[in-house]
Design goal:
The chain has 133 residues and is α+β, with helices and mostly antiparallel strands. The chain has 2 domains: 4-80, 434 Repressor (Amino-terminal Domain), CATH 1.10.260; 95-128, no CATH class. It contains 5 helices and 5 strands; from the N terminus they run αααααβββββ. The chain has helices at 4-23, 33-41, 45-52, 62-72, 76-80; strands at residues 95-96, 100-108, 111-113, 116-118, 121-128. The strands form 2 sheets. Strands 1-2-5 form a 3-stranded antiparallel β-sheet, with no helix packed on it. It has a two-stranded antiparallel ribbon with strand order 3-4. It is rod-shaped. The termini are far apart. Mean pLDDT is 79; it is low at 110-118.
Length: 133
């Protein structure tokens, strides 16, 4: 996990990069950048100045991160260098019928896409529920 200092440095670097592209600043020549960022986000210049204060290492609050996302199209995770968490593999359910219980033992090509589940191929072991009479 990154330290607060590392996250703050990464946040500032990415915010500077975004602002340079949006407002046409050249690297090292960022006079007025904080004011432009504040105007774009509709927040006070003082708030943005606090973010750029290397001693305080102040970070935006949740609502400010959302404003940054809306204005510049970058997620809080991207700003902070947090890798996206991959969803765990989908495990098919046990199937129970009147005569059998089927246990999934292996899946091939199992993915989760767009909120829906694509099982691919599932191999089941079937076990009788009742002994033969």
């Amino acid at each position: 996990m990154k330290t607060k200092e590392e996250m703050h440095s990464l946040f500032l670097a990415r915010l500077r990069e975004i602002a340079q592209k949006r407002f046409g600043y050249q690297p090292g020549k960022n006079h007025g950048m904080q004011t432009d960022i504040a105007n774009e986000l509709k927040i006070s210049v003082g708030t943005v100045q606090q973010w750029f204060d290397e001693e305080k290492k102040t970070m935006p609050d949740v609502m400010q991160f959302l404003k940054i996302h809306d204005a510049f199209g970058i997620s809080p995770n991207e700003l902070l260098g947090i890798e996206e968490i991959q969803p765990k593999e989908f495990i098919p359910p046990i199937e129970i019928t009147e005569d059998f219980i089927s246990f999934p033992i292996q899946t091939f090509g199992s993915t989760i896409q767009g909120g829906g589940q694509s099982l691919g191929q599932v191999i089941y072991i079937r076990h009788p529920c009742r002994p033969n009479l």
